[in-house]
């Protein structure tokens, strides 16, 4: 339909951006990148198109191209928190934790004036602090992430893991049980909940969670290996 429409009126940058996002939904990142590149060529100041192009490059592990896309956004808007947060992800993937933390903290400070700040820089910062062995410092940003996105299972799970590592098992149980309710088919959430039950000596409940984890992983592997329907 978009192709037919393009024969009537030349597509705008936003039109091409939507075509690119359609290909993202189809998990066809090569074509998504092609159309998103066309979108920014047509409209070089389209921040959303640059953002989705950067995300597509990052998903395909083309981090150099992703970095350039996010830097382009920051040239257009020097305090774009989404772009800075994604630069943090690139730094983290490239093994530069200090640079990643600085980027996440910048993103947090830039979005504090927004009416609706996002949870992503908070959960990214907290997760990285945990990985660096700074669990106590991770709690505040992770708690903020959950307050901003209470229905986000990943935020709940990450906070639950931080509570467990900090020895706060009741709080860990609460967050991880919530995470498994929000995403019942999430193997890591069930596994982490099992670890909490085990630490609480609730061995039957722990075993049930570990068995659920194994079941979900087996089911996922079967779906991935199954031949496509014809």
Compressed to H and E, one letter per element, the order equals: HHHHHHHHHHHHH
Structural class: mainly alpha
In which range does the helix fraction lie? over 70%
Uncertain spans: 226-230
What is the mean pLDDT?
93
**Main sheet overview:** none
Number of helical segments with 4 or more residues: 13
Shape descriptor reads: globular
Identify the notable features of this structure and list them briefly.
77% helix; disordered C terminus; globular; single chain; 230 residues; mainly alpha
Question: Please, could you describe this protein's structure?
Answer:
- This protein is an all-alpha fold and 230 residues long.
- Helix 2 (13-25) runs parallel beside helix 4.
- The relative contact order is 0.05.
- The longest helix is centred in the last third of the chain and has 23 residues, at 203-225.
- The model is unreliable at 226-230 (pLDDT under 50).
- It has helices spanning 2-6, 13-25, 29-42, 47-59, 63-76, 81-93, 97-111, 120-131, 135-148, 153-165, 169-182, 187-199, 203-225.
